[in-house]
Amino acid sequence: MSETLSEALTEADELAFRQQCRDFLDKNANGVTISGDDPRGSKALIEDKKFLAKLSDAGLAGLVYATEYGGQGLSKAHDKIWREEYSNYPDMTNSFVISHGMCTPMMNEYGSHEQKTKYLPDMISGKTVWCQMFSEPGAGSDVASLQMKADLDGDEWTLNGQKVWTTLAHVSDYGLVIARTDVDQPKHGGISMFIVKMDGPGIEIRPITQINGGTHFNEVFFSDARLPKEALVGPMNEGWRLATAMLMYERVAIGTGSANGIKTPNYKYLTKRARTNGRNNDPVVRQQLMRLYSEEATKSLVSMQTRAALQSGKTPGPGGSLSKLHGAMIAAMTRSIIPSVAGNAVAAWEVGSDDKTYSHSVLSSFMANIAGGTDEIQKNIIGDRVLGLPREPSVDKGVAFKDLRTGTQT
User: Fold this and answer.
1) Is 132-239 the same fold as 11-129?
2) Catalytic annotation, residues
3) How deeply is 247 buried, as exposed, middle or buried, from its count of CB atoms within 10 A (0-12, 13-18, 19+)?
4) Where are the beta strands (DSSP E) in 173-323?
5) Which CATH class name applies to 132-239?
6) Distance from C-alpha of 319 to C-alpha of 331, rounded to nearest angstrom
7) pTM of the predicted model, to two decimals?
8) Which region holds residue 271: left if phi is over 0, alpha if psi is between -120 and 50, else beta?
9) pLDDT tens across 323-376, in order?
10) Where do the domains of the chain lie?
């Protein structure tokens, strides 16, 4: 995130920019309203793209990215002001958590000049949507055990394998994928990262139906899919270093969101219901709601600290796992409170009633403990890289990947 203006803003400049943000948000951030069901997330994406187009036209998209790559070339102080103001409005870019929270900063930090020139402007403005393809059927928490192969054939790469749990792959224009390029290296070596055009030949996308009825997750199959040589991101066989950086961005994106400030969405959501049905006078419910408020407020403070650490412009560190894990704990807490507040509406509701959202919230909450890395993985990262505790023993260190019994290898 180079070529930014001085971090120091005069009081007049700060007030003027803050008012510019407020004026735009007052006019455009009215919430995403979707008529009917949207299991694939397609309708929400259309609304999000409209908002981002207006944001780009107003000169407020990609504030800290260089102007030569489609950004505004402003300072991190400007970005902080934007996040503070945006925290007071409904989130209008939820569909771009991966595209903007993970893929865009990765392209900015690790992409070549040519790649950044080609892709970043449309990424920033929301004209293109990007997805992340890491997990495989035999490589989930241990992503480094991936078996998808990429072979260099002249001026093209040939990719074969399968990815799973790819969010919004069906509406994405491009994706960042990691594949094995050298089986003679240990499993954390011999991995490379590539840019994939999602509608290219040899790529098949199949939806995964979740228990809550949603289908925004996908399986992606690569069958002799061919990519140009310049699709490689960063040096060959250094994909694990890039993947680790992207996972750090992911945990910050999931754990801290796109805004800055104290956010208590689940508390507000359940308190509103409790007031309408009189449950807010129940001392047990009141205690549950106050504990939820305390946890969400605390998480917001930790997230603000994590965001502040990003002001250096470098890849986020392992501290992002703190917010991610805390978010999963809050999801579980919310799940346990909903029945107390919503009553029978959590299991049965009138046709056309908004009460079905309670059931959806309960069922959807379980993914918080898995998406972006399981709770166990986050605890390992926090223990190892934050607290400095001894690492768990590794039996495959230094062993060539081809000699490991992992996935379908025997």
Assistant:
1) no
2) 250
3) buried
4) 174-180, 191-197, 203-208, 217-228, 232-233
5) mainly beta
6) 19
7) 0.86
8) alpha
9) 889 999 999 999 999 999 988 888 888 887 778 888 888 988 988 888 878 899
10) 11-129, 132-239, 261-373
